[in-house]
Amino acid sequence: xxxxxxxxxxxxxxxxxxxxxxxxxxxxxxxxxxxxxxxxxxxxxxxxxxxxxxxxxxxxxxxxxxxxxxxxxxxxxxxxxxxxxxxxxxxxxxxxxxxxxxxxxxxxxxxxxxxxxxxxxxxxxxxxxxxxxxxxxxxxxxxxxxxxxxxxxxxxxxxxxxxxxxxxxx
Length: 170
Description:
5 helices, alpha/beta
């Protein structure tokens, strides 16, 4: 989906559009109401970003316009709770893979500070699988290159998709 950006990394942009409030429309329901996602993606594109980053109405980090988000700080992995983002299958797979690698995933509310000061960030989604995010709002994340945890996730997803499941084509 992202081509060479798996190697070089995506650019993220925080957007003014907020994730719909869970009590109005649960983000865990695939309702096909993607208006906010489309508005966010347009805003990100206008600002030169590859991916929009949503916050919820309380100011907590939610997700990307089409991806769940993971932050690595001081060797620990964090992801927002699914009350304000899609409880994605790929997100769950990433958590399983990280735990198999011996890394505990901390599910907790995160803010702008956590995003800006992360050592690494990656996003997960059905189409993207796992992809590095190396810049947010013009700020380099870590050294501005995909980090070691992110690289392991990209490789782990590549392995799973090439070696498991039911083949579509013969």
